[in-house]
Specification:
Blueprint: H1 5-32, H2 37-70, H3 73-80, H4 91-104, E1 111-116, E2 121-125, E3 130-141, H5 143-154, E4 161-167, H6 180-183, E5 186-196
Antiparallel strand pairs: 1-3, 2-3, 3-5, 4-5
Length: about 200
C-alpha cells in the first residue's frame, strides 16, 4: 500500500461509514416508524381528502339553503312546525286554528261543528320520540265538498293521518237551515292523527 492509496482508502471508509450512519440513524427511522415520512404523507393525504369532503358537504348545505330560500321554505316551515312541537304549550290551539282555517277555505258549503282532541299520544315509537296525537273533527257539508276537503288535507304540509271517517245520511230532527235537506248536506266525523316529536 502506497502513501497515496492510504488517504484514499481512509476517505472511502469514512464516506461509507458516514453514509451508513446517515441511512441507519437518520433516513431509516423517518421511513420506518409511526412518525415516518410515508406515514406522514398518508396522514396528509387522508386529511386532505377529509377537508375536500367537508368543503363539498358545506357547499351542498349552502346550495340546499339557497334552494330552500328560493322555494319559500320559511312559510312552509311555519306550517309544519306544529308537527315538531308537542311539548309546546300552544300545540293544541295551533292545531285547532289549523283545522278552522282549512274549513273556512271551503265555507259557506262546509261547516265545522266541533274539533276535539287531548293532544295525548295514541302511540309512541322509537323510544318515545314520535307521538301520534288524536283529534276528532265533526263537519257538515255535501259529499263533493267533503272530497275536496279530504284532498286539501292530504296536500297540506302538516302531516295528517286520517284514521277513521264516518257519516250519516240522516239529518238531525231540526236542521238549522231549511235548504240543508235539499242541498245534500250531511254530517261527517273524522278521527285524525297528527304526529309530533
Amino acid at each position: 500500500m502506497t502513501s497515496n492509496e492510504r488517504p484514499l482508502i481512509l476517505l472511502t471508509a469514512l464516506f461509507v461509514t458516514g453514509f451508513l450512519f446517515v441511512v441507519f440513524y437518520l433516513i431509516w427511522p423517518l421511513c420506518s416508524n409511526a412518525d415516518g415520512v410515508f406515514q406522514k404523507r398518508d396522514e396528509y393525504s387522508r386529511r386532505e381528502a377529509e377537508l375536500d369532503t367537508s368543503q363539498s358537504y358545506h357547499a351542498n348545505i349552502r346550495e340546499t339553503q339557497k334552494e330552500l330560500d328560493k322555494n319559500n321554505w320559511g312559510e312552509m316551515r311555519k306550517k309544519i312546525s306544529i308537527n315538531f312541537t308537542n311539548n309546546d304549550p300552544v300545540f293544541l290551539p295551533k292545531i285547532y286554528y289549523f283545522f278552522q282555517q282549512i274549513c273556512q277555505s271551503h265555507s259557506p258549503s262546509l261547516t265545522l261543528n266541533s274539533v276535539s282532541g287531548s293532544g295525548a299520544a295514541l302511540k309512541e315509537e322509537g323510544g318515545g320520540s314520535l307521538k301520534e296525537n288524536a283529534f276528532n273533527l265533526s263537519i257538515s257539508t255535501s259529499y263533493d265538498t267533503f272530497k275536496a276537503f279530504l284532498a286539501e288535507l292530504e296536500s297540506q304540509s302538516l302531516l295528517i293521518d286520517i284514521k277513521e271517517v264516518s257519516f250519516s245520511s240522516v239529518m238531525p230532527a231540526e236542521p238549522t237551515k231549511k235548504d240543508e235537506l235539499v242541498s245534500g248536506i250531511m254530517p261527517f266525523s273524522l278521527v285524525l292523527a297528527v304526529p309530533s316529536y
